[in-house]
Design brief:
Belongs to the 4-toluene sulfonate uptake permease (TSUP) (TC 2.A.102) family. This protein is mainly alpha-helical and 302 residues long. The protein has one domain. The protein is built from twelve helices and four strands; from the N terminus they run ββαααααααββααααα. The strands form two sheets. Strands 1-2 form a two-stranded antiparallel ribbon. It has a two-stranded antiparallel sheet with strand order 3-4.
């Protein structure tokens, strides 16, 4: 089933795009990540211009996040107060990211920047998560390690503390606010929900309780990607609605399946699987930086 993507100016196999959406939704429910970190690179590998891939993936992540948030909310797995602070920061970050996106595209460097950011961020996060998961599976994840995470000096040194009851924290709201700003910028630039950075940061920097990390991450991703979609639609105009629709068909169902599986599998194993996927994509993106593409011009909608 071939379909034509008007903004991308490309004919693709519609069933393949739906399947990709299903995988994205599955990852969303399993790990609390929006799935854009996987969707955007795979769309680029398939021939979709990076600008269109990033903008459309951010839109599709919204649908996957809605489904995941409802599933986790039913089991009280969302800290709405923590999520609200992160969302506020994410809105600011989306505006900053929009300005950066337009500037980089104006100087013709947006495609290279998107690819380079993926290599740096995915490589760093994947390595950290893999190391932590292996240590946990070997029995080295002790209560003292968890205690260290709850007393990170960058967090405890910030003023004006609030209580976040579901997360079991008494910290400054500035920490999740700043984290939200960074995620908002990345969402705008890279088309990711930011969960692949947000989840480790919530666990290892903020020290949040593990049973609310996934749901709270999806709650933040939901609203930030909505803002990002609006920014892209009004400024960059790089959202391909046909591509988004195909991705959404698979992602909503996949998110429900992922949530059910996540409740039955050890968190350490899930983190190791996610780290492996992240590192594999980082290596592929790194290789792509040194290969001359078939089409040396990017597509910029008027």
């Amino acid at each position: 089933m071939d379909v034509y993507l008007p903004i991308a100016n490309l004919s693709v196999n519609g069933l393949w795009i739906v399947a990709l959406g299903g995988v994205t939704g599955l990852l969303s429910g399993l790990f609390g990540v929006g799935g854009g970190f996987l969707t955007t690179p795979l769309l680029i590998f398939y021939g979709v211009p990076p600008t269109v891939a990033a903008a459309s993936a951010a839109t599709q992540v919204t649908g996957a996040s809605v489904s995941g948030v409802f599933a986790h909310s039913r089991r009280s797995g969302v800290d709405y107060r923590m999520g609200g602070v992160m969302v506020a920061g994410g809105m600011v970050g989306a505006v900053i990211g929009s300005l950066l996106f337009r500037f980089l595209r104006a100087i013709g460097q947006i495609d290279v920047v998107i690819s380079a950011l993926y290599v740096i961020l995915l490589g760093s996060i994947g390595t950290m998560m893999a190391r932590e998961a292996v240590r946990a599976l070997r029995g080295r994840s002790s209560a003292s390690a968890a205690k260290r995470r709850r007393h990170h000096p960058l967090v405890t040194s910030l003023p004006m503390r609030w209580r976040f009851y579901r997360s079991g924290l008494y910290i400054s709201p500035l920490a999740p606010l700043i984290l939200g700003v960074l995620v908002g910028i990345l969402t705008m630039l890279m088309g990711v929900g930011g969960g692949f950075i947000l989840v480790p940061a919530m666990l290892y920097i903020l020290g949040m309780s593990a049973n609310v990390v996934v749901g709270t991450s999806l709650f933040n991703i939901l609203f930030v990607t909505i803002a990002t979609t609006m920014m892209h639609s009004l400024t960059t105009r790089a959202v391909d609605i046909v591509l988004v629709g195909l991705l959404l068909i698979g992602s909503v169902t996949g998110a429900q399946m992922g949530t059910q599986v996540a409740a039955k599998v050890k968190p350490e194993i899930l983190r190791l699987i996610l780290a492996s996927i992240v590192l594999a994509i980082a290596l592929r993106m790194f290789f792509g930086l040194f290969v001359r593409p078939d089409e040396i011009y990017t597509i910029a909608p008027l």
